[in-house]
Amino acid sequence: MSNNRPILIIEDNPDDEALTLRAFGKHGIRNPMVVAHDGIEALEYLFGAGSQPAVLPAVVLLDLKLPRMDGLEVLRRIRADERTALLPVVVLTTSREDLDVQQAYRLGANSYIRKPVDYERFLQAINLIGQYWLALNETVDAKVGSAY
Predict the structure, then answer these.
(1) What residue numbers bound the domain in which 23 lies?
(2) In CATH, what number is assigned to the domain containing residue 4?
(3) Which one-letter DSSP state was computed for residue 148?
(4) How many domains is the chain built from?
(5) Which residues contact residue 99 at a Cβ distance below 8 angstroms, ignoring those fewer than 6 apart?
(6) pLDDT of 54
(7) Is residue 132 packed enough to be buried (19+ CB in 10 Å), middle (13-18) or exposed (0-12)?
(8) pTM of the model
(9) Are the CB atoms for 39 and 74 separated by under 8 Å?
(10) Rounded-to-integer distance, Cα 29 and Cα 50, Å
(11) Among 60, 71, 89, 131, which is least packed by CB within 10 angstroms?
């Protein structure tokens, strides 16, 4: 993939984290990976004093069921800040609740994907996410504060 910006993975389950990282590697996606294990850690990565990234992630993969701050609140805060308002956010979760899907889209999610439980389907989903968001999708300037 030509886009070398990091991918921010917000995931509290160590097994799902490892599977996601393995799936990206298996499909040749070599972007740097940043993992936040809860909503607070994710926001600290994006907005924290002294640790704010010079370049925003190419895409955020956001789980909904997170400790300390749930994914919907993380999404709400990402969209509320002009620096990250246009940041691509893909909800990648096990939640099958229709209300979660509705709320995620109302809050500005770019996509909502239920994590496949089958390993091969999960690999395929991650490959498609990578192909679309890293190779095909056009984004605004990646520097914090520039076009955001």
Answers:
(1) 1-68
(2) 3.40.50.2300
(3) -
(4) 1
(5) none
(6) 64
(7) middle
(8) 0.89
(9) yes
(10) 28
(11) 131
The pLDDT value recorded for residue 4 is 84
53: CB partners within 8 A, 6+ apart:
6, 34, 45, 46, 144
Element (H, E) at 77: helix 71-80
For Cα atoms 100, 6, 123, give the angle at the middle one, nearest 5 degrees.
Answer: 60
Please, are residues 11 and 35 in contact by the beta-carbon 8 Å criterion? yes
Residues 7, 34: Cα–Cα separation, whole Å: 6
Q: How many residues would you count in the chain?
A: 148
Cβ atoms of 115 and 94 closer than 8 Å: yes
Both structure tokens of 127: 């490959």
pLDDT of residue 84: 92
Longest Cα–Cα distance in the chain? 40
DSSP symbol at 58: S
> Which residues in the chain land under pLDDT 70?
1-2, 49-54, 141-148
Residue 86 inside a domain? The answer is no
Q: Are 24 and 7 in contact (CB under 8 A)?
A: yes
Q: Which residue has the tokens 């490959």?
A: 127
